[in-house]
Amino acid sequence: MKVLLAKPGLDGHDVGVKVLAHGLIDAGFNVVYTGLRKSIEEIVDMAVENKVDIIGMSILSGTHLVLAQKMKEVMQERKLNIPWFVGGNIPAKDIAKLREIGASQAFPTGSKVSDVVAYFNTINVSV
Amino acid sequence: MNASETKTVKGKTAKELNVKPVFLESGIEVNPVYTEADINESVIKNEMPGEYPFTRGIHPTMYRNKPFTIRQYAGFASPEETNERFQFLIKNGQSGLNVAFDLPTQCGLDSDDPRAFGEVGRVGMSIDTLADFEIAFKNIDLDKITVSLTINGTAIILIAMYVAMAEKAGYDISKLRGTAQNDILKEFIGRGTWIFPVDKSVKLVVDTIEYCAKHVPKYSPVSVCGYHIRESGANPIQEMAYAFCIAKAYTDGALERGITIDDFASRLSFNFDIYGNLFEQIAKFRGGRRLWAKIIREEYHAQQDSSCWLRMIAGGGGGGLTKEQPENNIVRSAYYALISALSGTQTMALCSYDEAYTIPTEHSAEISLRTMQIMIHEMGICDTVDPLGGSYYVEALTDKFEEEIKKEMKTVEKWDGIVNAVASGKIQESVSKQAYQREMGMQTGKVPKVGVNIFTREEESKDVEFHPYDPKGADIQIAKLNKIKAERNGDKVKACLAVVKQDAIDNKNLMPSIIAAVKEYCTVGEIVTAMKDVYGEFKEPIFFK
Asked: What's the Cα-to-Cα distance from B67 to each of B59, B64, B93, B376, B482, rounded to whole Å?
């Protein structure tokens, strides 16, 4: 399975997303990383180009709801159905909101790499 | 971390005493016992505090004379709020403030840029033009307050604004004080607010150093940050080694411009991180301080002692604090403060115990302050210089750290120097791999962390909380920007931006043309765009395959 890990917005904190990238690679996933400061359009372009199975966005600056909304819109505009999830500084009350917007799942700071891997494996079965 | 690179010291070994081996995060093996034999050859016996190479401290009496400076961070959304805060501080007899900026300002985007949407004023003050600086510093006597600008990618523009504001207000800039973080190389390793390619970014830092040395000699234009490098996953040896390589890169650039080492080195300061093993951190600072002095004297031939000083702010790092059982962070921070004092820091700052998940309250900020004050006033920490000096273990480890930092700096040289190692992503890759190993160590319990993987208990999970964000603040900032754009002289703005661009093409120092541009209220975004036209942008190396 191929995963795109992305850093949307201006937030430059990338320790977490890179830890996850290493973890997913060790667990046998194919990982493409966007690098910092990508727009949602650029992220979706990369997802299509690389034919990924899932998109993960790492957001620590508190802009997750704004960016998730944008992701939903771009996916709809382009008639795409790639599952996407959000990780980072996500308050508990926003997890449900993110899922309402369209995120498959949200992983707040403190989530274990093994939890994410386990979750991705379930996606793999359903796709 | 890496047991294959065991770095032993003398004394009785674990094997001899039949106990389990112990390795520090840096990979150094620790013996169960240290004796005089471990420091027989050490130069420490002949060293005094305040004397070269300053292992025991940069001043002869250190805190006996004056305790370390306590500095806490604060961020304010608008220039107006910042001004209020300055007025309050001056009234209360304080003399310094760190100013934080929002991400658009840090990345060189104006408040009305679509990419700035949702970010204006979120993590600090938003600056579009000199007018914002003029509001922030209205009725402030710049002789009475020193301002520290926490800015990197656009530091040259904001330093130019500070100088321009002072000039316009009639100050003699040759007496103007203040500091800027302005360490772009560490931004490529951690934090990520880079804009231009690595070599051009370093050129801009050197521009500020050259300009300040010639025109604003009391200003400290650079604070090299090992802190963020360590927070990104570097071990304590790498934290110091990479910071020293970075400081040398800026120093080399300054010397190429004809500045003498003694004119520049004493204006350079460092920002380091504290978490992890207590003795390892203390040895890191003592060994690092000795090595830095030797580098400045032996490699750069500095005459003045003050050029050789490793002046530092060493603060408790967020990386050591936990969301679990957060009150434990108060205890951790007290140890970090102790480490910082035992290491001879000039300035100390502690994170609030609750900032891993929430907005620090006045109460939690007060606990940090009191932690440092208790140490100063109740623990006798200021009574004598370098109280650990002469300890068999600490001195043996200090010597080891000096050697290992030096070795790590050689590794960077093998990667064609720090500028190339950052441009190619070599440093980022090695640091990120270590962050992964450390995180996995924590998640699997190999790296013990109280309240996280040992001595845990059922507790309500702490929710993360952000500063409330009011999008109206962004609207006000954009309205202000539009008003300035309507009122300024459009022809002069164009002419100034053309000069910035031409100076960039001609490889001139950009400080004079940027100062001229900000005086005509060119925006941060306009100036950055003019520079990007010539320099291009950094292409982030991606090392996952």
From this structure: 12, 7, 17, 7, 47
Say if residue B114 is in the same domain as residue B189. Answer: yes
Say how far apart CA B86 and CA B178 lie, in whole Å: 14
Provide the shortest C-alpha distance from residue B463 to chain A (in Å): 6
Interface test with B, best of A7, A15, A34, A89 (most B CBs within 10 A): A15
Domain-embedded: residue B298 = yes
* Residue B492 maps to a domain: no
Last residue of a domain, one of B319, B353, B381: B381
Same domain, residue pair B76 and B27: no
Interval B397-411: pLDDT, tens: 999 999 999 999 999
Tens-digit pLDDT profile for residues B210-262: 999 999 999 999 999 999 999 999 999 999 999 999 999 999 999 999 999 99
Q: Which two tokens stand for residue B72?
A: 């806490």
**Cα of B273 to nearest chain A Cα, Å:** 16
Within-domain flag for B513: no
Domain boundaries, position B23: 3-38
- The shortest CB-CB distance from A35 to any of B117, B464, B542 is to B542
CB within 8 Å: B118 and A66: yes
Its pTM stands at 0.94
Higher-confidence residue of B9 and A67: namely A67
Beta carbon pairs, A and B, within 8 Å: 87
pLDDT at res. B11: 65
Cα-atom radius of gyration of chain A, to the nearest Å? 13
Asked if ipTM goes beyond 0.90, one says yes
Which of B251, B239, B232 is CA-nearest to residue B189?
B232
- Decide if B229 contacts B400 (C-beta within 8 A): no
Q: Do A22 and B432 touch (CB under 8 A)?
A: yes
Contact A12 B439 (CB under 8 A): no
B443 contacts chain A (CB < 8 A):
yes
Check which CATH number belongs to the domain holding B199 and give it.
Answer: 3.20.20.240
Angle between helices A64-77 and A40-49 (to 10 degrees): 50
B29 and B149 in a single domain? The answer is: no
In this structure, the number of other CB atoms found within 10 A of the CB of residue B474 comes to: 23
Q: Is B184 on the interface with A (CB under 8 A)?
A: no
pLDDT at A66 over 50: yes
Interface of B with A in 107-166 (CB under 8 A): 107, 109, 115-119, 122-123
> Does any domain span residue B220?
yes
Which of 3.40.50.280, 3.40.50.300, 3.10.20.90, 3.30.420.10 is the CATH number of A2-126?
A: 3.40.50.280
What are the chain A neighbours of B193 within 8 Å (beta carbons)? 12
User: Does the beta-carbon distance from A109 to B233 stay under 8 Å?
Assistant: no
B430 touches chain A (CB under 8 A): no
Is the pLDDT confidence value at B92 over 70?
yes
CA distance B434 to chain A (A): 9
- Averaged pLDDT, B339-363: 88
Instruction: Record the tokens describing residue B163, joined without a space.
Output: 């100088």
What mean pLDDT is predicted for residues B272-300?
Answer: 98
* CA pair distance A3, A116, nearest whole angstrom: 12
pLDDT at residue B391 is higher than 80: yes
Q: B257 in helix, strand or coil?
A: coil
